[in-house]
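Q: How would the structure tokens look for this protein?
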Amino acid sequence: MTSILLVDTNLELCNVLKQYLGMQKGFEVVGVVHDGLDAVRAVRNLKPDLVIMDLGLPLLDGLGVLDELRGELPQVLVITAFTNDEIIQMALQKGAVYCLVKPFYLSVLEKTIREICVCQQEVVLDSSLAGVYLDQDLILSHIEAFLHDTGIKSNLKGYSYLKEALFLLTVNQSILVEGLTKSLYPKLAKNFNTSAESVEAAIRGAIQSSWKTNKENLLGVFPHLKNYPAPPTNAQFINLGKNELIRRMNQV
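A: Here is the predicted structure in token form.
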């Protein structure tokens, strides 16, 4: 059951969404709030799996909510009337996983929620096959195939960093993707004798290059990204990649 918090100033829309989502299998609306400060409190108190939130909120706007909850964010689906790509990209960079522009069909919202839940859920290796899956050469071959499938070119610096990052995260699932800046980037920087800032920039460049020149490949692996106005963030791509790799290895 996916628990959902609704955050929007439009009372009528909130009532419609609450009623509609409450009728769909697997969804439970656990709270409805109408301003940014209440949204922060509700997330911390209710701990929902997903927040559906407008950006134009009183007291604290949606971007402010994302900033305030940095490091403790659940999945956040932004619904907004803003069509400014810069604002939408800011929301994605601050931790939102998807932006849906108003107005939208309720069926599209439902489909989007289900895609988010499938793509963002944690996948756990089958322990009975762990001895096979944790073979380093096998893991690396899966990672190379994944990066090829998503259009990340092997001649880019970011390719090597992504390959190493995905390897570390796949063999040690206790490492949190949310800790990129504090733990993963510095570790990669040490391994490659460079700076954490260079690692972050190179990974971002590789993802942006794939988005620009091989977008069809990327969408072939992650179709839910098709409505993104900008490339996924480093954390989003690495998290999706980690889960996709574990899913593939569980199918071997």
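Residues 119-133 have pLDDT under 50 and may be disordered.

The chain has two domains: 2-120, 127-250.

Upvote if useful.
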